[in-house]
Amino acid sequence: MEARVYNDLAIFSGRAHPELARNIASHLEMPLGACDIFEFSNENVFVQIKENVRSRDVFLVQSLCSPVNTSVMELLIMIDAFRRASAGRITAVIPYYAYGRSDKKDQPRIPITARLLANLIETAGADRVLTIDLHAGQIQGFFNIPVDEMTAIYHVGRYFQQRDLTNMTLLATDVGDAKRARNVSRLLNSPLAIVDKERLGNEERVVAQALIGEVEGRDVLIMDDEIDTGGTIMASANIAFDRGAKSVTVACIHPILSGKAVQRICNSDIDELVVTDTIPLPPAKQHEKITVLSVAPLLGEAITRINTGRSVGELFQ
To answer: Which of 3.50.50.60, 3.40.640.10, 1.10.760.10, 3.40.50.2020 would CATH assign to domain 9-152+296-316?
Structure first.
């Protein structure tokens, strides 16, 4: 039995990252769907769809970024609204999936919030999920609906392919991130080094213990999936400089950049910070050292393939 193909495509946006949703719609040369979303004075979120979505293939773009809990609740309410409006299929497009670090019980009596969030999205009525670079691969298995996880590491890697890479070394921020960094190192044909780090309990503080590999006299590229406070990045950059690195450039997929992260990174000896727009970068966080690459074409192509029943995996072959 062949999978059903939905031809009547519709893209709607939550309030978390409307610019990305507009860019996706522009890439697909179609208008963004009309939808009113606001909060009452009691902070209750209200959603009203302003056009007919019956039997349509609906994609809801909502990055789960700051304010995180409001973005999560808004997505759930949007899904429920479209389900009750008889949408044919609902795909939650979540460029950044929050609570990704809470993916296992590594301390006594704690939740697995990434799993709870998956349950909520399913219960609200989503038929499938489209996301980018989950913090932990097992999060895909928390869902009982199809999950298409895209990766932007090759998109970021191609940005650096335009440069002279003969003296570049890829530096993974920890052993757990070595696989991601290795994929980029193969793309750029550059050697790989790894930082051995320790995170101090629930404190947002990181200590770099050692560096495995050679960075002396090299141009170092640090690649991570997300940057929150910048502690991991700064610890990795500092140990690279201590080991004689000629320069350090940083790249990540999800620029959370909370607190003074931008100030810490951009006031350091780091040459450049390259990020994607899975999370919006407000004016206060923009800096001449920061380069933003858009994932709109990547998500637009994935949406087209899902809508027409074609393989999404072919994008990475």
So the answer is: 3.40.50.2020
